[in-house]
Amino acid sequence: MNYYGIVIIIGRVNVGKSTILNKLIKKKLSIISHKICTTQTNIIGIYNNDNYQIMFIDTPGINTNVTNINDIRKQYNIIHTVDLVLLIVSNYWTKYEELILDYLKQVNKSTLLIINKIDLFNNKNNLLPYLSFLNKKYNFSSIIPICAKRKNDVNILLKTIYNYIPCGEPKFPNYMITNQSYKFILSELIREKIVKFLNKELPYTTKVEVIYINESKSIYNIFAIIYVKKISQKKIIIGNNGYLIKKINSYAKKSIEIFLNNKINLILSIKFKH
Ligand SMILES: Nc1nc2c(ncn2[C@@H]2O[C@H](COP(=O)(O)OP(=O)(O)O)[C@@H](O)[C@H]2O)c(=O)[nH]1
Ligand SMILES: [Mg+2]
């Protein structure tokens, strides 16, 4: 028997949605950061095993630019096509979760509430009152406390997700893990390092475009352009004597090599573009 389904991962920024997607798929598809707004578009990750194919959709987190239920509706317009919703929360509940919940009440889809980052509960006694608070909030299909960094917790989550996946034939070839092109994934891995090393002056609008991936030799050559909106941002990214851009390059290179399972040469160029 084969099973196929679509699962959407929603929640406030920084609760660990992208971390959970990456752990479920066992690949780094979605960029992760403790800084807000790092996932800019929906990212699709396709999970495969002998019987199951699950399309996971990682969404940009709900943050301060969301003020009402219509904003939420716009962000999650694909929710009607999914079989299951994963609402991720961290160790506390905010007005954003309240807004998302108001929306979920209208949509009426099977929803698992995932309490992530339970490792942050120093005192386990605090988890129980939080669980009972959440239990009263909505008729969740199930409430699952996890730490996304623990393999076992993610496996338990995956087993629970299986219960909501309907019978169906796989829609994608099993070597496909994402609908994003490799160029896009690599550009996200590079952008992740820019986000990582630039603090307050971080240009969230920075775009990265991978121009080519040359796989003809044993070491792949990859060329990417980082687009900045201001000349001053270019200077910041380069850093003193090129210190920062070298650091971005070396960390991005490592991540890309792990992702592609191959040695690479990475050439980064910074361009100014309005
Ligand atoms: N302590 C702890 N941190 C976590 C856990 N899961 C994710 N994080 C961290 O939380 C931050 C935000 O994660 P991310 O996946 O980018 O969140 P998103 O904005 O919801 O996609 C990152 O620094 C992660 O490393 C967890 O279970 N425990
Ligand atoms: Mg994210």
Could you walk me through the main structural features you see in this protein, from its secondary elements to its overall organization?
Strands 2-3-1-4-5-6 form a 6-stranded mixed sheet, sandwiched between helices. A 3-stranded mixed sheet has the order 7-8-9. The relative contact order is 0.14. It has 2 domains: 3-162, P-loop containing nucleotide triphosphate hydrolases (Rossmann fold, 3-Layer(aba) Sandwich); 182-272, K homology (KH) domain (GMP Synthetase, Chain A, domain 3). The longest helix is centred in the last third of the chain and has 18 residues, at 243-260. The chain contains 8 helices and 9 strands. The chain is globular. By secondary structure, the chain is an alpha/beta fold. The protein binds guanosine-5'-diphosphate (GDP) and magnesium ion. Guanosine-5'-diphosphate is lined by residues 11, 13-19, 32-34, 38-39, 61, 116-117, 119-120, 147-149. The site of magnesium ion has 6 residues, from helix 1.
Brief overview, please?
The chain is of the alpha/beta class and 274 residues long.
SSE pattern:
EHEEHEHEHEHHEEHHE
> Which small molecules are bound?
guanosine-5'-diphosphate, magnesium ion
Average of per-residue pLDDT values: 88
Rounded to the nearest angstrom, the radius of gyration is 20 Å
Class by alpha and beta content:
alpha/beta
How widely separated are the two ends?
53 Å
- Domain count: the total is 2
Q: Give the tally of β-strands.
A: 9
Helix content: 25-40%
Low-pLDDT stretches are none
Strand ordering within the main sheet: 2-3-1-4-5-6
Describe the sheet with the most strands.
6 strands, mixed
The fraction of residues in strands falls at: 15-25%
